[in-house]
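Weekly puzzle thread! Below is a chain. First person to post its structure in token form gets bragging rights.
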Amino acid sequence: MLADLQLAVRLQELDNRVTELTREISALPKHIAEIEKKLESHTRKLEADRAALTANQKDRKKDEGDVQLQEQKISKLRAQMLDAKTNEQYRAFQHEIEFCEKEIRRAEDHVLELMAESEPLDRNVKAAELALKAEKAQVDAEKQEAVARTAEDKKALEQAQQERAQIVARLNPSLYRQYERIRKGRRGVAIAEAVDGRCGACQIALRLQFYQDLKRGDQVMFCESCARIIYYNPPVAFEDVTGESASAVQG
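Winning reply:
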């Protein structure tokens, strides 16, 4: 394979890596923002449940206080009944006592309703507090991991960009211009490998003569369908990989 073509292939690998790292670096803050937003939503829900439970307890306390006041009032009215001079006065005290008793029943019924409402509220608050504590720990852990991952990605990105600059400096300027033009017009993919007689990018079958010329690897060629720079990567012989001959291994 031509040296310039080898450099172009490596350049494509680096550009793919740069794109991947840049995308990940950009995505990590968005991910953190999403989980923090979800945490904030759960926190607000817990605060609302706590407020509802507090209001419930406040209403119960008020009703229980009203019951005590009405009971004290009844005690005073009963004592005053003993001093009633006429039947009208006596009946008036009775009516007031009946009204107080009615208020006591109303307040006690409301207390029972509030108690029934408070039980699920209390369970929800306790469960939400535990869940929120675990979620906060998870968010903190993910944030720390994101910070560390971002630092690693930025370091890798810097290394890839440095190597890219070195390759561009060695690459034939004309080929580099063609590479950049194709890459911008083909969604970042300017290089394609020929696999089984087809372009690895557009999957269109190559003409037989074109494929034979490509296999020689003595010139820069472009796919006749998608116009990407195309190359052929010959299979590696077994002995080149292992240092042994296939017949020796079989024996």
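Puzzle host: Confirmed. Bonus trivia for everyone else. Strands lie at 191-195, 198-199, 221-222, 229-231.
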